[in-house]
Amino acid sequence: MGNHSDDARKTSSVVVTSHEEGKETFPNPGLPPHAPRLTDVDPHKAKSAERQVSLLFVISILGAILFWVAYFGIKIGGEYYDVMNPEPTNALRLQNLLLGLGIAFSMFGIGIGVVHWARTLMPDHEMVEYRHAVSAEADRAEAQEIVETIIAESGIKRRPLLRNTLIGSVILAPLTFVTFLRDLGPADPSVLKHTMWDKGVRLVRDPSGTPIKASDVTLGSAYHVLPENLSSLSHDQGYLNEKAKAVVLLMRLDPSDLKVSAGREDWNVDGIIAYSKVCTHVGCPIALYEQRTHHLLCPCHQSTFDAADECKVVFGPAGHALPQLPIAVDSEGYLVAQSDFHEPVGPAYWERGKHVKEMAGETK
């Protein structure tokens, strides 16, 4: 039986060994036949497609213009908008809507325009490029030839309307994002060194403006608070900017859970602590408080701070602890600030140590 199986294996036509000669070869099927598009055979269709692409590029340009009109033209609490609507919140909503629409149209127009251009006007025939030996001079000449071929086949030279609208959209669309760089922070970071907090300023609830007594803050509770003197500012005087810098989270922990460093022993009132609500990563508002772990969480990039350990960073991209507001109790039992923050609030994207030293010197 064993010999018979071996003989059958040797004579079977199904078994093909690697050293067999005369292997079967398959002919090259070549490229499939090219089916011309309507724009390839009908000049009117090609002209219509060119107008459509140019219109999409114009939409991109108009979107960028809409963005800048909203960004620079709508002033929150300023003379340009208050005539129509005195509510700054409505102005912010309108501005955000127009900014979003401007960027959307700008990106949509240029993106769809390029795709439509490629599908209707650029050559779509398939081609084969064979590999060859590498030569610096030959490769340079070939690269130049490829670029010239692409320019010629794209039709950008003989279609000035398409070319000019493309140039306009390519220049303007990215500038909408560059404009946002102005809002990454103030040109002069020193404006973040000082807020509306000062000695004796009462802590009030946001948004009611009600002063807070120490007896009102129960164990485990958390409040969003503002300085009482903030209400003296109008929107024209920078109310929103000052509010963004001064907003604070007030919590009450068991005093035995607090880790207090030297020099901060009297910054809390029987476990009541106050920290800046502005994340030290990119300035998002911190709004989530986990009572069991005493953790504060920034919803933007998940930076986590330990409120029991002077709001030091325990997770996430933030590089510094949240600045603490020293607080005390006045003669009527209301919580008040002992001073301003002892360090700048907000993102630490400048030389923080220098400003801390300057503020320490000013405090003295």
Level-1 CATH class name of the largest domain: Mainly Beta
Distance between the ends: 105 Å
Task: Give the low-confidence spans.
Answer: 78-87, 353-360
β-strand percent reads: 5-15%
Could you say which overall geometry the principal axes of the C-alpha atoms support?
elongated
Sequence of strands across the biggest β-sheet: 1-2-3-4
List the domain count as a whole number.
2
What structural class is derived from the secondary structure elements?
alpha+beta
| Helicity level | 25-40%
CATH-defined superfamily of the largest domain: Rieske [2Fe-2S] iron-sulphur domain
Reading the helices and strands in chain order gives HHHHHHHEEHEEEEEEEEH
Number of helices: 9
What would you report as the Rg, rounded to the nearest angstrom? 34 Å
Q: In the CATH scheme, what's the topology name of the largest domain?
A: Rieske Iron-sulfur Protein
Find the count of extended strands (DSSP E, 2+ residues): 10
Largest sheet: 4 strands, antiparallel
Mean pLDDT over the full residue set: 80
CATH architecture of the largest domain: 3-layer Sandwich
Family: Belongs to the Rieske iron-sulfur protein family.
Membrane topology: Multi-pass membrane protein
InterPro entries: QcrA_N (IPR045603), Rieske_2Fe-2S (IPR017941), Rieske_2Fe-2S_sf (IPR036922), Rieske_Fe-S_prot (IPR014349)
Subcellular location: Cell membrane
